[in-house]
Amino acid sequence: MARSKVPAAEGTLRILSHLAVQRGPVPASAIATALGLPRSTVYDLLAVLADQGFVLHLPEERRYGLGVAAFELSSGFSRQQPLSHLGRPLIAALVDRIGESAHLVVLHGRDVVYLIEERAPRRPSLVTDVGVRLPSHLTASGRALLAALPTAQLRALYPNAAAFAARDGQGPRTSGELRRLLERVRADGFAQEDGEITAGMASVAVAVRDHAGWPAAGIAVTFPRERIAPAEWPALAAELAGTAAELSRRIRGRPAGA
């Protein structure tokens, strides 16, 4: 790593990035050790961050976590819809290459919300228009996102059978069925859905991960079932994975090849 001309700024950003990937508040000493920074420096930077609301200090536990101001930054990110702006040209290019319709989604509770839908020429209309919400466990893109979540978060989303919305009797109906389905997604490296949303249509999807490895979005291609044989779906998923990797780089502000 090149030496920063503004070490305090670099240290501050490293602390915030470190806190963002922790499961909960952590001691200052653990932050210093993880980042290789002097404890005195870490305490000074944490004090400034806490004063500005970006870090929350829990004095009884002697731990630090992200504060409300950090959450407001995240909300600002969502309001500006950077995923839509960054993803649209990539999804359009993907559709041009493969000749099938594609879309970009984000996870919202137990649903996926469609941010982008790019329809290929001479392909049928889909139910996945921009703004549409569908149960994530029924869609390929939702399954790709769910497969990337920690077990505890997945259990919180689907605590019992009542959490499983049905669509014409399709899809998993219990936590066990969902767990086995997601195990297959992880083993294959991509998710699929075959006629569970629209009869005769199938989808293949992959997750887009953020800087911390968390699923930020899902990219899926939807096509008439008879046009692409299941044996070709892994190659199609590999094409999606390239688009997902580029969008991941752009989310993190990194140019292609960085």
Please explain how this structure is put together.
- This protein is of the alpha+beta class and 258 residues long.
- It has two domains: 7-74, Winged helix-like DNA-binding domain superfamily/Winged helix DNA-binding domain (Arc Repressor Mutant, subunit A); 81-251, Beta-Lactamase.
- Helices cover 43% and strands 19% of the residues.
- The chain has helices at 7-20, 28-35, 39-51, 68-79, 82-98, 140-146, 151-157, 175-188, 233-251; strands at residues 55-58, 63-66, 101-108, 111-118, 133-135, 191-194, 201-209, 215-224.
- Strand 3 and strand 4 (111-118) form a beta hairpin.
- It is elongated, with a radius of gyration of 21 Å.
- Residues 254-258 have low confidence and may be disordered.
Looking at this structure, what is the CATH superfamily of the largest domain? GAF domain
Low-confidence stretches: 254-258
Strand order of the largest sheet: 5-4-3-8-7-6
Rg on CA atoms, Å: 21 Å
Biggest sheet layout: 6 strands, antiparallel
Shape: elongated
Order of helices and strands: HHHEEHHEEEHHHEEEH
Mean pLDDT: 86
The CATH architecture name of the largest domain reads: 2-Layer Sandwich
Q: How far apart, in Å, are the first and last alpha carbons? A: 13 Å
Q: How helical, in percent, are the residues?
A: 40-55%
Task: Enumerate how many helices there are, as a single number.
Answer: 9
Instruction: Give the number of domains.
Output: 2
Level-1 CATH class name of the largest domain: Alpha Beta
- CATH-assigned fold name of the largest domain: Beta-Lactamase
Strand content: 15-25%
What structural class do helix, strand and pairing data support?
Answer: alpha+beta
β-strand number: 8
Domain IclR-ED: 69-253
Keywords: DNA-binding, Transcription, Transcription regulation
GO biological process, one term: negative regulation of DNA-templated transcription
Pfam family, one: HTH_IclR
